[in-house]
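Table S2 (text version). Query chain:
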Amino acid sequence: MAVDRMKKAEIYVHRSALDGVLAALQKTGSFEVRSLASNDSEQAVPRHPDLTRLETLLGESRFLLRFLEPHFATDKSAIVRLLEGKEEVALSTGRDLAARIDVSSLAEQMRELERSLAETRAEFSQIASLEALLSSLDDFPYPLELITSGTERVSGIFGTVPSLTLDDWRNGMESLLGSMGEVFVGSKADKKNPDIRVAVFFEESLATGVADINAANSFVRVDLPATLKGTVREELAALSERKDILTRKEQDILSQRDAAAQEWVPSIRILSDYWSVLRDRGQILSSGLATEQVMMLSGWIPERKVPDVQKLLAPYGSSVELMLTDPGEGDEPPTLLRNASWSQPFEFITKLYGLPQYGETDPTPLMAPFFILFFGMCLGDGGFGIVMVVMSLWLLKKYRRMPPIFSDFLKLFVMTGVSTILVGALTGGWFGNLVDTFPILSFLKPVKDGLMKIDPMNQPMQYLAISLALGAIHLFFGMGIAAYDAYRKKDYVTMFVDKIGWMVFLFSILMWGITFSGAFSEGVGKFFKFVTIGSALFLLVTQGREKNGIFRKLFSGGLALYGTSSYLGDLLSYSRLLALGLASAAVGLIVNVLADLATGIPYIGLLFALVLLLGGNIFSFVINVMGAFVHSMRLQYVEFFGKFYGGGGRDFNPLTYRTNYVLLQDDKTE
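Corresponding structure-token output:
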């Protein structure tokens, strides 16, 4: 229920036992390596001899998965695969696959397929462009060879001319060429093709004059591929035949790719994770120091995991030595949270804000009960709570291997769902006012009314008072944690002056304010009045104690007292518990009223009412669950954590089996 204590570890390993020791450390998943700087008597460890080979194999496996995995067919949806979690696979399975499959050769085959597919599709694109061009020349009567190759004495140029200059271009060309050439003008321009396609055939001796006329009339030359020789229709037919050939080729490539995906993806996934594990093991050598025969690794081990590490290193005898010390001044140990099973699902909420620094209080178990309660008050509908609990328990039972982040979230939903059921029972919220709206459910009304203690819709001020009271407890609890932290650090001045002093002042002013409502006698009111004045004077003279001069001290103390308004703002933030509770109830009421009105529609009224009830409640459930989660989290982050929690810790990052596709398990032969 705190941040795990860490031991600073130094491990000295003889080179003969290096691979075995690294494998043992990775198996424990309890050793975080820290980088060491070299000095005069030691040199940095060279790369592991197998590291280059492993990185190459890992790169090949990732290429194969990039190319093949999108085409691996499975009958399970992505969500189901995610919930089912990773398949457990022994390390020996990865080793056997590595010995049996030539991944480099397979990768080369797949690269050849990828190149062929890319070339085929590139040619398809070229053909499509040519077809578009030739289709616009369906009235071109000459062989295209006159343009692409010409003859010994005659050349041809194909291009476009703006419709505005077409007549000038044609007249100029006809005047220049006379009987020594010929002009072709294509179909008229339209909105999509504002320029006219034209061609001119001429003797080489007239090339300069042709170029001048083209330049004067904004002629744009279009180069045709030299392979085009026949007429437009002949070339279009040839392109169509080539497309048929390419289509068959593409289908063959795709069939080979899909067959390869079905055959190899499961094995390549295992190999990718296997080589990733071995790569991680080899990479940590670069963080150590070495002599000719001995290597030194330094890092952190959780104190409770030390016996496990020692047990796994014991078989290596004198070839390895483990030295343990407590963190010293200047060290920055990592943070590893350790919580009871009931509060562990809430760790991700803490991590979203930031891990505690080493030695700082872990706020997770302190925050969890309030989060559960506030979530229930924000959602406030027992029907929704039942849905949350049933759905979460069913998913947890059905998908037992789901990733921890999902299972923790569902466990959180179970606890907050129970809270929602209790709040819904006390406030009469069961899918809005469903029981009151539909007479068919009237037999449940005595049960609902018997459990109900307060109606937020008709008694909002009482519910607001409860919300603010819980908010005050939450805030004072956070301030109390800050006082305890100061006590733990033996900073007694901060504990009494900055923590307890403020708690006394705020509590007394709160109680003094309550006396005006008549809740307490006049004598009690006077007592809290004097305590408020006394504690205010105490804060006035102590909050500026670090300033020089009496006036600066008093001025700083006065500014500190002005900060009381921020505490008032924090307290008023808890009114959101009422606001969200009312919003949930109001949406449910509207849905039920609309459904009740729909029952009066002839013939389809009942069906329409059921659709409204189902759709409206699903919408209300999603929106209000999201709101309850976000606002409950905000009350922790802003109002609660702000009183005592700093964060900024570094996550514990040990050498372990990090995988993407399967869950690698140790085996006896490893």
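Notes on Table S2: The first strand starts at residue 2 and ends at 3. The radius of gyration is 39 Å.
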